[in-house]
Amino acid sequence: MSGPNTNYDPVEVSALDPANVDAAVQEALTAIAGAGSLDDLKAVRIAHQGEKSPLALANREIGALPPSAKAEAGKRVGQARGRVGQAIAARQAELEAERDERILVEERVDVTLPAVRRAAGARHPIELVSQRLADAFVGMGWEVAEGPELESEWLNFDALNLGPDHPARQMQDTFFLDPVDSGLVLRTQTSPVQIRTMLEKEPPIYVVAPGKVFRTDDLDATHTPVFHQIECLAIDKGLTMAHLRGALDAFVRIMFGEETRTRVRASYFPFTEPSMETDFVCFACHGTGHDESGAQCRSCGGSGWIELGGSGMVNRKVLRACGIDPDVYSGFAFGLGIERALMLRHGVQGMHEMVEGDIRFSQQFGMEV
Ligand code: FA5
User: Fold this and answer.
1) Cβ of 169 below 6 Å from ligand 1
2) Model confidence band, residue 235 (pLDDT cutoffs 50, 70, 90)
């Protein structure tokens, strides 16, 4: 800054020289007009309006002038700064308007375009059927019971009267867990849930237990290594085979309709005595046992019937093992394959369709969540 200017002549202070002030203004206006973007304009503002700009320096010179000269110099510099400020504000408004217009075009949303629709998930038909079956029994006052898929050998076999050397233990080909003496298996049936329930609850007991089970079966039209069962167990005073038939009939009617053709035949399960098997008429040959060419039906092996599930009166030995007095209480149980129930209910042609995970299969059953 210059020293006190006692012999005042504003022209002699070069920064305040009207020509220089004018030149600074012209230079600023040219730069402002040439700023092509808001970023450019920011740089121009710093150069021509900032602390080190020529006009800011001129403004500072005013402070050193004698009071009588300050007004005139102040007016000149003030007007110059005002012009620059206005020009910057005007250019700023122009550039902002251009930017907004560009954004509106670039980010335009066509609300008439069809939306990208994501398919909503839905429950698998196996899950739907097993829930519907369980619901039917809950509607009759039964409770839902659950057990683990990784089960102790004792609960899956021994407690159900299938001792280590029992030949029936081979009836259900089992996935054992490493090491073999771990005593753990992937449960082969939902029947261990019977035992768990009887050990936990006092009679009367009415439970329904849906769940996943595992067997070393090959995948074919009526078998899969991972499938689902639903098990019903009733323990009360005075229950007989008549109650079992009644419950089975109710189950089949609710699930498959009045016209369903099923049959029961004597069978054997170590944990029920006496035992029965329920079959339904083959979905492929409709009970004839052969296909259109006369060859043996591959779905039912020529018998015309497909096994749906087993049942029977709970073996006295099993009741006793669970601490229930068989002279006071009796009970019945039955267990069905859900995949087979789905075949019967919806005419599904083979197990492959159910396990392949093709969404077109599931969609036929609706998208119930
Ligand atoms: C049992 O598993 C007994 N726990 C059923 C039972 C419960 C009997 C209560 C008495 C009292 P079974 O091994 O038969 O029984 O199997 C029952 C049903 O599971 C079969 O009838 C069949 O519908 C289904 N099933 C068996 N193996 C397979 C498989 N590999 N794939 C699909 N479904 C199967």
Assistant:
1) no
2) very high
- One domain, residues 66 and 166: no
Q: Is 120 inside any structural domain?
A: no
**DSSP-derived secondary structure for 97-164:** HHHHHHHHHHT---TTSPP-PPPPP---HHHHHHHHHHHHHHTTT-EE----SEEEHHHHTGGGT--T
CA 321–ligand 1 middle distance (angstroms) = 23
Question: Is residue 130 domain-shared with residue 200, that is, in the same domain?
Answer: yes
Q: 285 pLDDT band (50/70/90 cuts)?
A: confident
Q: Is residue 1 part of a domain?
A: no
Do 172 and 67 fall into the same domain?
no
**308 CB less than 6 Å from ligand 1?**
yes
User: Which atom, in ligand 1's list, is nearest to the CA of 190?
Assistant: 4
Q: Residue 127: is its pLDDT beyond 60?
A: yes
Number of domains in the chain: 2
Determine whether the shortest distance from the Cβ of 172 to ligand 1 is under 6 A: yes
Domain that holds residue 75: 10-106
Residues 307 and 336 in one domain: yes
Q: What is the pLDDT averaged over residues 333-359?
A: 85
- Angle of CA points 120, 125, 131, to nearest 5°: 105
Q: What CATH number is given to the structural domain containing 178?
A: 3.30.930.10
